[in-house]
Amino acid sequence: MIEARELTKRYGDKTVVDNLSFTVKPGEVTGFLGPNGAGKSTTMRMIVGLDSPTKGSVTVNGRSYAKHAAPLHEIGTLLEAKSVHPGRSAFHHLMALAYTHGIPRRRVDEVIELAGLTSVAGKRVGAFSLGMGQRLGIASALLGDPAIVMLDEPVNGLDPEGVLWVRNLLRGLADEGRAVMLSSHLMSETALIADHLVIVGRGRLLADTTVEDFTREAGGGVKVSTTEPMRLRSLLAGPEVTISSSSAEELLVAGRDAREIGAIAAQHGVPLYELTPQAVSLEAAFMDLTRDVVEYQSAPADTVRKAA
């Protein structure tokens, strides 16, 4: 388990991580999300002792990373896939890591096979493609058979088969009871893998919730079908309620949930024959939540076309 408590990091007068608290629990894949400049990389570096907090603390299985005698057995990380000596082969890179923890050669062979690197294990890492480098980084993270796995953009550069492999791998690790922390800009992929979300913006916590609850609460309203739409519209009206209509007997209601709408309709004898919450994608919900904390905003596509 990873536990961050009031974690803060300042560089001079710039606060990169601001009073951040969250927990990455065993048996779950936690998606660690945020726009560029949100403080995600700095937070992950503090988790494994590469940066020191200005204030607050973060522990890995109850201790700071530096206090673990054999940290590779506690947490495996992929923060920068290319941080490998380019002149070493994949095999020798993994063996060098294994020697630091007394990990046997058979485990090196196991992670090479698991990562699909058997045919290139003797090749120099400097000649690896981006995808092959990612696979090596994941193999390194798994080398110590850790209780926690923390990966930053693990599917970057992978082909569809590789993306599917990572998805199944992370799901399998969580199902084994391990804690998995995944940082990614691919919302569609995160939605397929993650159970829980920790979303940050400008170093601050914006959301700490399940994927299901996050997308439901950001949902596109509730579709209601009734033979008495005008009467139901007046019953549901309120200061925070928006009601639109797509057909004569359909209403789209935002500001009231399905349970509340059903109860009001039943109380007043209004017949309903559809009451369906309209879910939104994780990407849409994320974009809506982080709209005001994006460090760099692109111009609309039509503006670009006009300028061209």
From TrEMBL:
Q: Which domain of life is it from?
A: Bacteria
Q: Note the Pfam families from the entry.
A: ABC_tran (PF00005)
Question: Which keywords belong to this entry?
Answer: ATP-binding, Nucleotide-binding, Transport
Q: Provide the ABC transporter domain boundaries.
A: 2-227
* A GO molecular-function annotation: ATP hydrolysis activity
Question: Per the record's keyword annotation, is Cell membrane included, yes or no?
Answer: no
Q: What is this protein called?
A: ABC transporter ATP-binding protein
Species this protein is from = Streptomyces aurantiogriseus
